[in-house]
Amino acid sequence: MSKYMKAFKNESYLQSSVTMLLYFASWGIWWSFFQLWLTAKSGLNLDGSAVGTIYSANSLVTLVLMFFYGTLQDKLGIKRHLLIFSGVCAALVGPFFIYAYEPMLHTNFTMGLVVGSIFLSAGFLATTGIYEALVERFSRVFKFEYGQARAWGSFGYAVVALLAGHLFVINPDLNFWVGSIFGVLLLLNVCFWVPKDERLERVRSAQETEKTVPSVREMLSLLKMRDLWVVIVLIFFTWTFYTVFDQQMFPSFYAGLFSSVAQGQQMYGNLNSIQVFVEAIMMGIVPVIMNKIGVRNTLLLGIAIMAIRIGLCGFIDNPVAISFVKMLHSFETPLFILSIFRYFTLHFDTKLSATLYMIGFQVAAQLGQVFLSTPLGMLRDNSGYAVTFHIITIIVIAAGIYAFFVIKKDNQDVNGEPLVSKAA
Length: 424
Hints:
With 424 residues, the protein is an all-alpha fold. It has helices spanning 2-6, 11-31, 34-39, 48-76, 81-91, 93-107, 109-125, 128-141, 146-170, 172-192, 196-207, 209-212, 216-221, 226-236, 239-255, 261-293, 295-313, 319-326, 329-347, 353-383, 385-406.
């Protein structure tokens, strides 16, 4: 506990934590109900196929931007240019959704699809990985625990998820306006709060730019690395399904278990908030677990919980039981995300950490959504939730078996920062 409290004396930790909290709050207040907004009668009332098409388009644009963002952030080092741009988009999310996106999807679906995918990807979907990669870099440079700073992002998401359900029932537009308020706070934070250590580090790193910043050729050469493709395949068949399941299917699936849609939407907001609160706590605990059992074992544990959680949803239709199953998400997400991040910094060159994370994790997941969102949406329309969840579970289990044989042990090919662990 004393070690955790000591972190609050580190201004870089405080600034990074506030940045994560405000970003995830500005995003989560509307994103947690985005699928319900697309499908609900009080929203756009779209079917599963149309929703899948929207998610596929978002993922396609995000896929392109992520590679660009990752390489640009590695060039920028610890500079915040991309965060400032994201803050501007977050501040404008209310006007965009209400006065541009929704009307276009009603009158010209294709136009809305294109414009929406560009805005959402540029401002949110492609920048999430940049926030995480940059804060992880800050944690190494300014000596604080990344998981503790990332936990504040989950905490921010949890707070707004609780609020989002109640606002959505009153008027979905309120979610977008509150998102803009958090966006303005985020923009002010990233523009004006620059810790002293960060200012000094910018000066120092600027003097060593030519020596430390990877070239574009170096970054592109990553795609020739077999070890990176091993991770990409794993992410494609695990985190893709986590995203499709949680964002495109679970909200409406859960809301449909209640006597009224409004009650289901409100209960989903409450449950989502509780789940993310626990997730925030686990973000601080998982690094300790990872040091005890190792990065590889932590990742395998996350995949196992993912398969169990999705699989059980295919067999249970009781809202109370499903609520308990949903809470497994609180453990699954930190185990998976933090171990993947640590896997990259353990086995790869840390100066390419942003690009590696964007390509190996974020891009791979988005690529999976591009190809799988629409087919899975159609499968859900034609065969129902249970069959769709069973098929997803079988694929995730197969990916877990694949991971067991191909993911490196922690003492194998350590090309980055070694893990001080009792596990091999």
